[in-house]
Every structure is written in C-alpha cells, then in structure tokens.
Amino acid sequence: MCDSVQNHVLGFSQADEIDEFRSLAVLRPSSCSLRVAILFLTLVSCAVVCAENTRPSKLLTGRRFSQSLETRRGIHVQNVPLRKVLTMLQQQAELCIVVDRRIDPSFRLTLNTGLVPTLDLLRQVAAELPHSDVSVNRTFVFVGPTAGSRQLRTLCEWNRSMILKSRSRFDPDTYAKISTGQTFDWTELESPRDLLTRLAVQSGLVVVNPEAVPHDVWHAGRFPVMPFAESATLLLIQFDLTFSVNAHSGECRVVPIPEIVFLERHHRVSRRQREKTKLKLDQEFPGLRSKWDRSGVHVSALFEEHQQIADLVSNVGESAEK
C-alpha cells in the first residue's frame, strides 16, 4: 500500500480551448511503486485514434502493454466527444486504441469511472456507446460494434494459424516477411483500400481484389509492431471482411467474414475431473460445441471462450487437489 498519496489537478473543460489545460485532478503515488493516474476531462473522426498530431511517440507492446492495461486510471467527463477522451487516454497510457470506422467519434460521453484498471475503464466507455464492446489483442485495444469485437481475436488467431499451416508452401522470403511483426504508418486521408495494398506489399503479398474494400478515407495513424495476419484483420474487420492467402502464388484475396467464426482446440481433462468439468461446462457454456475423448474435450468456440474454458478446467483441477 502507498504510505501517502499526493493530489495534483490536471485537466480541461469544454469551455477551454481544445488543447489548453487548467487545474482540475491527477493522483500521483509518492513513496510507492503503484502506478495510478486519473484524467479529469470535461471537454476531437476516424478508424484509428492514433492521429498524426496526437499519437504517442511510442506504442507499448508485450509485458509493458499488459502493465499499462492494468494501471489504475480514471476519467470524469461531461459531454465530451469520444475521440477526445480516447486520444488523451492513449497519450497517457501509450496504447494503440483503435476505434472502428462505424463508431461515431463525435459521440459525447458523460462518465465518471473512479480509479479502475485501464481495461475496465475502456469497457465502461464502450458500455456507453450503442451496441459496442472492447477487444484486446497482444498489441492493441479495439473499440467497435459488439459482433466485430467478439470476432476480432478469433479471426486474428484463425488467420495466423492459416498462414502457419501453409508455411512449407510459402517462398521462404515471403513467409519471413508475412510472419514477422512490423510497424505500419499512414498519412492523412489515405484510403483503407490503399492501406491494405501497402500492408500486403510490405509482407511480400499481392492483393488481387482491392476493390472489395469499400471506399473510405482515414486520418493519419499507426499500427504497432504486429504481423500481417493481425494488422490486415484489424483493418478489414471494420468492413465485415477478412482475407485468404494462396501460399504458392503469394496472392491475398479479400473475402467476407464467415457466418460462424470459431477455433477448434483440445482441453486436457483427467478422468477424475471429467464429471465435475462436464457439469461446469454445461452450466457456464450452454450449447457449447464439444466432443469428449479419453484425454479431454475438443471444443469449437471463440478465442476468449477458450481462455475461459482453460481457466475453468484449471480451477476444477486445483479444487480437486485440495
């Protein structure tokens, strides 16, 4: 616990100029390692919040990305445009926060979160938006329509696995490019159609039907380090699209997202824990697509559901050992 917490005020109101700060509150821990921050914003459109003149100098990845999501922050906003709130949060947290093109960036928020982990804060923001949710990947946070947010992590993993399974059929240089994480920047008013084409070229691929991506223009932005499977999925999901790749020819084709999106995985369950695990799965995941064998259960589910199932199986095993 902190021995003492100093209160300092920082923020701006709707009456202020857009970038003018005046005294209002930030909590700073002194003499302890807990990182706590609070934004008090009482006061800016695009698919990606990382605009050219507002994006942070760096975007966190890996362990530091996770730590930033766990850092406790708070916002108290009244009638403030969504993009302004998330831009300020992104600058402070150094996170890539991607707002789906279908979310209205001018939507005005009135919200007082208190001090909560940054991920919970973002979920509270999404809960204020019509039919929206949050999805977290390894290097970015996505705020978008509920259906897309539920599918995004699964599609990223699905496309990553598709490329991995085709590894032996790729030209070695192409596979090295497509599987290696790279940053990706673009300038003001570029079209996502052109962005996808450049992403593919950067990864050694050619998009054969770029016209399948509807015309749009985006503000300048940046994706952090991530492989093609993730960056292309993140771009295309905003049009309810995804992609397929021909490993022999190096061709990338834009395709609609399938009606049913899921991953197939096997979860090991010991015989002693089988009945209790079955009961728990039926209670918490009614209608789950599953098939049991001697070593466990094969499940078809979303990425996040597999994580929850893995935790459930682990918890049943731990309780059985006590």
What would you note in describing this structure?
A hairpin with a 2-residue loop joins strand 17 (289-293) and strand 18 (296-301). The model is unreliable at 1-35 and 40-53 (pLDDT under 50). It is globular and about 60 Å long. It is built from nine helices and 18 strands. With 322 residues, the protein is α/β, with parallel strands linked by helices. Helix 4 (146-165) runs antiparallel to helix 7 (228-236) and helix 8 (274-284) packs across helix 9. The two termini are 31 Å apart. The chain has three domains: 4-143, no CATH class; 147-256, Phage tail protein beta-alpha-beta fold (3-Layer(bab) Sandwich); 263-321. It has helices at residues 62-70, 82-93, 118-128, 146-165, 172-179, 192-202, 228-236, 274-284, 303-321; strands spanning 4-8, 11-13, 26-30, 36-42, 72-81, 97-99, 108-112, 116-117, 132-136, 141-145, 182-186, 206-207, 221-226, 241-246, 251-256, 263-268, 289-293, 296-301. Strands 2, 4, 5, 7 and 8 form a five-stranded mixed sheet that branches. A three-stranded mixed sheet has the order 6-10-9, sandwiched between helices.
Structure characteristics:
disordered N terminus; three-stranded mixed sheet; alpha/beta; globular; five-stranded mixed sheet; 18 strands; 322 residues; Phage tail protein beta-alpha-beta fold
